[in-house]
Write a structure and sequence with these properties.
By secondary structure, the chain is an alpha+beta fold. It folds into two domains: 2-117 and 335-357, Probable inorganic polyphosphate/atp-NAD kinase, domain 1 (Rossmann fold), CATH 3.40.50.10330; 123-328, Tumour Suppressor Smad4, CATH 2.60.200. 27% of the residues lie in helices and 31% in strands. The chain contains ten helices and 18 strands. Strands 1, 2, 3, 4, 5, 6, 7, 8, 9, 10, 13, 14, 15 and 16 form a 14-stranded mixed beta sheet that branches. The longest helix has 15 residues, at 194-208.
């Protein structure tokens, strides 16, 4: 099988040694090429080129942003995506049951390829965006008596950011402001990891979130609701806080249309109650502060003040509006089984050749 390994060397868990070991493991049973990303969007270019040049599987080694770029290059093609965790959170990799260690995850990937565990999954899509225009005030900016005029917290998103596919979620509002805060301190992600996200989330909520009036108006399948935060989930959990899953809708899967969630209240107690419910598990569908729309077909988010947004953990700036839909069975995804043991169990022996155990080389 022809494989292209796309690696982001700046991702927090990717080292030269790990990249070399992973390449050798994959090469034991497959024909492998390696490409290193050089700039933002490069992984999309590499994946799109691979899909038309005979590559059968593209392996993405990096964080969630790298994974998103590769998925955007492969969406709608027959070339399959395989995931290896290389970032700080690795949401989709952990959702798929991959080990946190990328070398151990490579062994799972080899097993999956041997067994042909590749299936078509659905993707959500930001199909279009409305860029901010300083000459046209948004609804809350133009409202009479508005005592809390909005202010820009980040760059305006260019129209070229859409269309854009997402593999596990889109966040609009507070969570995007959290991602932006983390990216401003990107050099600390490798060392602080989830502590940095917790700090950024609290700072974004208490310092940057205006709770006097809604941030957005959401129209989904003909129904309109206003709120402060919007999440669109292609799978569950939404993210992880340390080892604990942040459950929003356990019924959101890669085999179905996405789930859209709007927070209709966002005070400090509401925020605490909502996050506690998500960390406890079971989802937040019954929570008093949210409206949930499962399996929606189209949604339009209109900004009442400049809206920060992020896709698969990648902050993309601020917009005046977004349109979101989904496409079923739009990506081939390698879905691995449970992790292998790190070493043979008691009474087991590995056949060795050139000093490498057969089970590490992908053989039997």
């Amino acid at each position: 099988m022809r494989i292209l390994l796309i690696a982001n060397c700046t991702a927090s868990s990717v080292t030269a040694r790990k990249r070399v070991v992973i390449t050798r493991l994959l090469s034991g049973a497959h024909e492998v090429d390696v490409a290193l990303t050089q700039h933002r969007g490069h992984a999309t270019e590499l994946a799109a080129a691979a899909s038309t040049s005979g590559i059968e599987v593209v392996v993405a080694l990096g964080g969630d942003g790298t994974l998103n770029e590769v998925a955007n290059g492969l969406a709608g093609t027959d070339c399959a995506l395989a995931v290896l965790p290389g970032g700080s959170t690795n949401v989709l990799a952990r959702t798929l049951g991959l080990a946190d260690d990328p070398i151990q995850a490579t062994l799972q990937l080899l097993d999956a390829l041997d067994l042909g565990l590749i299936r078509r999954v659905s993707l959500g899509r930001v199909s279009s965006l409305t860029p901010l225009d300083d000459s046209v005030p948004l609804a809350n900016e133009a409202a009479p008596g508005n005592r809390a005029p909005s202010r820009r917290r980040g760059p305006a998103s260019p129209p070229s950011e859409a269309p854009r596919w997402f593999t596990f979620h889109v966040g609009i509002g507070w969570d995007a402001a959290t991602v932006a805060e983390v990216e401003r301190r990107g050099s600390l992600k490798r060392y602080l990891n989830h502590l940095l996200f917790i700090y950024a989330g609290l700072k974004a909520f208490f310092r940057d979130t205006d709770r006097t009036s809604p941030w957005m108006r959401v129209e989904v399948d003909g129904e309109v609701v206003e709120g402060w935060q919007c999440l669109v989930l292609n799978s569950n959990p939404y993210t992880f806080v340390g080892s604990r899953a942040f459950d929003v809708d356990p019924r959101a899967t890669l085999d179905a249309r996405p789930t859209l969630v709007v927070a209709t209240r966002f005070g400090a107690l509401d925020f605490l109650s909502l996050t506690t419910a998500a960390l406890r598990g079971g989802g937040v569908a019954e929570h008093r502060t949210v409206r949930m729309f499962r399996g929606f077909e189209n949604a339009r988010i209109e900004a009442l003040r400049p809206l920060p947004w992020q896709v698969d953990g990648d902050y993309l700036g601020e917009v005046a509006g977004l349109t979101i839909d989904a496409r079923p069975a739009n990506l081939s995804l390698v879905t691995p089984g449970p992790p292998r043991p790190r070493r043979p169990g008691p009474g087991q022996r590995s056949r060795r050749r050139r000093g490498v155990p057969a089970w590490l080389r992908g053989g039997r």
